Amino acid sequence: MMNNKMFYEENMGGVIVGGRRIKSIKFADDLALLAEEEAILRDMLLEINDICEQYGMKINANKTKTIKTIKKIHEESIRCAQSLNIVPEDALFHKNEHFLNVTKIRNLLRNREFDIWCRHPEKGKDVVLFKQYPGANKWICKHEGHSNSEWRDGIKMVGNVAAVRAVSGRSQDNRCRHCHNEVETLAHVLGSCPHGEALRNARHHQVRSIIATALKDADYNTFEEVHGLSVTGSTRRIDIIAFKESTRSGYIIDPTVRFETDEEQPAELDNEKKEYLQSYHSLLPQKIPAKRA
Ligand SMILES: [Zn+2]
Predict the structure, then answer these.
(1) Is 234 exposed, middle or buried (0-12, 13-18, 19+ CB in 10 A)?
(2) What is the pTM (predicted TM-score) of this model?
(3) Which of 20, 110, 158, 246 has its CA 20 to 30 A from that of 132?
(4) How far, in Å, CA of 35 to CA of 250, rounded?
């Protein structure tokens, strides 16, 4: 039926593949027209339409689509890379091909976003902390045993960006619904809100007794909640005193559970505790027989 001039005689339309001009691809009642320019493709379609009409047939416009393919794929790939602020290095292209390797581009963009996130003044500090305690944080790299949502929530909680304020009942200004002292973050709820003080104390006592039990098991003379007075007369309380008479040495332990904030936190906390206990050491109870505890 397509015994038409443009289609079969003129050097118009189609694309050259392997030295041959291909103008159309036909399969059952489907027809694909090929052309290098949109105007020529339109002419070809009008021509087909004329022929169809002669035979009482109609082209279904709803089922007709135009697909634009890229002719100069290398140039187009370079343009795409530049639009993503990527230097189109050879390594980013498929081997012996002219188009970009999508996996490599995706990894590059992912690493770039990760670097931006790491430099974020708030969220970025968590990356440092995750690195600092690989033993405790190995679940971040290997999320076996957690569902995706549990793993994601865990990271949000460690990073103090969990949506506690999303819980119903929060006040309008994001301040803690109980004490109104601070913005209601997980760190505030767990670490400093007076509303949770009893729970916090219970947690502290639990941690203290775990440590004390471990010391007893290791043959230390162990005392918990040892009270005394500092040199200035104020009350001091030591969580654990543990010593071994055989070695005449021991430990003063004051366990504290703090929400991780920055790299310097452990050293700062250590100094804070030492300062608190410094004035106490001269008044150590008679339980300590040694010159040093
Ligand atoms: Zn509060």
Answers:
(1) exposed
(2) 0.54
(3) 110
(4) 87
